[in-house]
Amino acid sequence: MSEPRVTVGQDEAGAGRGEKEAKSAPLKQPSNEASRPGQLGLPPGSQLPSTEPSPSPSAEGSGLLSLPWEMVARIASHLPAQCVITVLPQVCHALGNVGKDSTAWQLRARRLTGPRASFPVGPRDGFDWPSACLEMEELIACWTGQGERAAREAEQAEREREVERVQERERDREALAEEGIGEWEEVEEGRPQVDEGVDEVGFQVEGVMAVAWDREELMEEGEMPQDREGDLPMGVGEGEERQEAAAEAMMEEERDDEQGVLEAIEVEERVGVLADRDGQDNIAGPRLGSEGERNRSSRAPSPPPALERLSLPSGHIAEVNSVLLVGGDGALCASGSRDRNVNLWDLRDGGSTGRLLHTLGGQGLFSTHKGWVWCLAARGPLLASGSFDSTVRLWDLGAQGAERGLIRARAAVLCLALPQKDVLLAGTYDKKVSVYDTRVAEPLVKSLRLHSNAVLCLVADEQYILSGSKDRTVVIYDRRAGKTLQKLQLGSYLLSMCYSDSEVWAGDNRGILHAFSMQAGFFKPLSQFDVGHTSLVTGIHRSPGSLYTCSADRTIKVHLPCAPPRTLCTLHHQAGVNGLSVEAGVLAIASGEMCVEVWRARR
């Protein structure tokens, strides 16, 4: 590998020395450059003549294609997945076949997840290795270190708040000092005449004058206070010493205050508040020091983070219970709140905030539902919202959020699913899973009593329904056969569930993740994972190359979906997180702080 110039050119009979050197010269490249797409020993695809046949690993040739196929595949496994999928097929047919080799993708996945992790967790039959590897690489590039950056930003914000608090206290001290000076000036103007034997310190130090006067009166009466140690009378000299000590204590306190001000200024300079506040660069500059400014300007700027965070404007007046990204590309976001409203947000506008499009059902308070909005589901232009008012309302996103229908349940609606067009599933507090046809006036098709307690989470496809209940069971129901296939008893109850590609992931009330496999109606528990959540797992999303979880413990975690999950990032929130939604690489969370926060690739 280190001498790629040992090629066919050295074996040709009758070739002169100059001809050999001419053939070997283009191949004299360092081995560490062999992994670059543009330096694979071949010209770029755009420069290949259209009449030239595509080389193959078995054909006579030089450079990369003269190596054994296994070695070519291993080299290609170190290229970005996006390059293997989109670029190599344009170079030549042989390199395009690298993207069809499942062994190469498995090697790549093993390198990404680590040698001790198992991936995928579920069945391997029909698993989409290229998409999984591409998604994992993008996830690692975006989220690795994001938690540390968020922590640093939070720490800097706390420092700025501390500086503001110190400055506020300093302003209060200055105001009090000015008031004290004003009182002293008033005393000076109306100062009474006293005997010459009274020390003026009594007018300057609070409380000292009164002590001196009392002492004079006691001396005239012949009664002297006794000292504790020697029971001797306290002389006037000792009183003066105490006055001096009091004055010195006040000076020491002033020095401490001055030191506190200096420390506050130093903290303020470190966080850069003085340099940026209100455009007063000329005032703050000299205080920061020219040398420090030169050091900062000469330092290479750090690259911007791969993600940007959007905090949607305050559109709710109570906790946001659910959030859902719709539209297919993460451009629209729906949020349901305890203020009984569903808001629809446009995330396509630039800037750090989204734009409120509609409050579904009208404008004003309590316009969407008459109870807490607890869950959302969508398929195509249809959006469904479930509420504690025992109703499911249907909305048409293609018609500016116009109301499309109303379904009346018999208890609070806790979870929803839309596995097919016009088929709606609802899990309710009265222990039932109901199937509705959204096209007809009487939408109820079937009501299933599958549990002995409230139904908390629900997922489904065209044939199977999987429901989790507070009775600590998971039920698998076959819609086509019309019967229950399995009922699993767990040691905890599930609150969130995600079903895709024969894998089911769920989060329970103890903060534990559960992984199951689902094949041909057979539901099999695989593993349980402790990823660091310490309370209810309120939201979970799994795809072939990503795993997102959120919890009431105020954290959001991003993982690679292997066994055990490899956690890339932990985001700490100010309040409990009630749910999440992921679409096209965009993450949205529902917060107990009456807001929705969104993370997406920086544009």
From TrEMBL:
Name of the protein described by the UniProt record: F-box and WD repeat domain containing 9
Taxonomic classification: Eukaryota, Metazoa, Chordata, Craniata, Vertebrata
InterPro entries the record matches: ASTRA_WD_repeat, F-box-like_dom_sf, WD40/YVTN_repeat-like_dom_sf, WD40_PAC1, WD40_repeat_CS, WD40_repeat_dom_sf, WD40_rpt
Keywords of this entry: Repeat, WD repeat
Region (Disordered) location: 1-62, 153-174, 220-248, 274-310
Gene: LOC110538917
SUPFAM superfamilies: F-box domain (SSF81383), WD40 repeat-like (SSF50978)
Regions of compositional bias (Low complexity) in chain numbering: 47-62
Top-rank lineage group of the source organism: Eukaryota
Gene3D superfamilies documented for this protein: YVTN repeat-like/Quinoprotein amine dehydrogenase
